[in-house]
Known about the structure:
Layout lengths: L1 H11 L5 H10 L4 H8 L6 H4 L3 H11 L1
Amino acid sequence: MDLLIGGFANENLKKLTTNELKEFEILLNFTDKELSSWLVDDKKNAEIENFSISNKIKEFKLKF
């Protein structure tokens, strides 16, 4: 998870809006298992998917 989320942060933090930064900070409070299930295993997680930044993270994963 650190590679994906850290890579996303390195590439995008300066481009994010204030709201997206707040959402990203909230996402960091999810467990690695929750994030991994959503991001790697493509399991639905409505709580995570409600954030507008979720799509940007998924798009980054596809390029990773």
